[in-house]
Every structure is written in structure tokens, then in C-alpha cells.
Amino acid sequence: AQSVTQLGSHVSVSEGALVLLRCNYSSSVPPYLFWYVQYPNQGLQLLLKYTSAATLVKGINGFEAEFKKSETSFHLTKPSAHMSDAAEYFCAVSDQNSGYSTLTFGKGTMLLVSP
Amino acid sequence: NAGVTQTPKFRVLKTGQSMTLLCAQDMNHEYMYWYRQDPGMGLRLIHYSVGEGTTAKGEVPDGYNVSRLKKQNFLLGLESAAPSQTSVYFCASSYNLGTEAFFGQGTRLTVV
To answer: In this complex, is the C-beta atom of B4 within 8 Å of any C-beta atom belonging to chain A?
Structure first.
């Protein structure tokens, strides 16, 4: 069964600092992995996705994530935080068993950006 | 292009009342989903549909029913609302399983 663990329900950074949001997955086979962002009172928007092509995936708004099979991780990074990055971020996995499954989401990490 | 549209956006129900949440998508997607979002719990799948006329249970289906009579619409029903169903409900659609899901803006439901 697939699952996702996001370490840290809240992460605080200063504007201009590195953003690192952690995601580890559990899957019996190589999965598809996603990062979504949710701004207050809005739906979820896709940031980036890994679908077994390049292990380093670039997304919107300067975010990127690296798939590391040996560590079962898919951490999200951004070199320099901006105030507008303050939002909740969700990692999600779709396991491939007999065809791909529905998305399973982590519990989310709230990113707080201070001036 | 509207994407995924949910109605209503807000609703307050009394315990025991019933209601239906409507989701409409204009992307011709086969797959549609209903999730609920609760603080500290992430998103949990309630029910989903792999095509018109088909539905399946997700992780937390109890107390909910769904119908997919038309490809573009996916309805979520609460027959007898309970305070535990106070939540934010999101509808989503995708071209296929394992592909990007597009989300609506959510429905905030309070059951008193």
C-alpha cells in the first residue's frame, strides 16, 4: 500500500532563504510523485510531478524536486524564498500496481515566510 | 476555460439534514474524485469515478453517496449530516489515474 510522510507540519524561513520541504513515500513499485500548493481559501494547484523520466524535476515558481529511489524521497526545494510562497504544500503519490492508483496525499506542510 | 467548478462554496447544515454537492468539469476527463480536507489530516479520498455511470469507494466513504450520471458531473450526497462531516470538500478530475488531478475551489461545509 502506498503512503506519504511529510516531515514537519510547519516550516519557517526568512525571505531569501532556502526552502526545503521533505517528503518520503512508501510504495512497492516505482511511483508517480506530485507536489501541490494550496493558497488560503483556494483549491490545490500542481507545482511539479515525477513520472519516471528525469529524477530532477523543475516546476512552477522556481521550485524543483529530486526523486531519490534509494532514500524513497521526493523533497521540494527553492533556492530563495519569496513572501508569496507562503502557503500549504502537499506531497502525493500514485502507486503503480496493476495500473496506477488514485492519489494518496501527505498531511501537508505549512510554509511561513518572514521578512 | 472554467476547469473544475464546485457548488455551493459554503453551506451550513443542521444535524440530520441532507444535501448534495455538485462538481462539474469541462476538460472531458474520465476520472473524477471527491476529497475531504481536515486540519492536520491532509486530503482523504471519499469516492471516485473512473467513468460515466461508475463509482468506487475511497478511504473514507461512510456517510456519503455519489453519482456520475453524466461524464462532466460528479455529485456527492450526504443523506443525514453529522458534525463529524464538517470539513472542506474538494472535487478533482484527471485524464487518467496517475496523471495530474485538477482541483475545484472547494466547498466549506459546517454541520451544527
So the answer is: yes
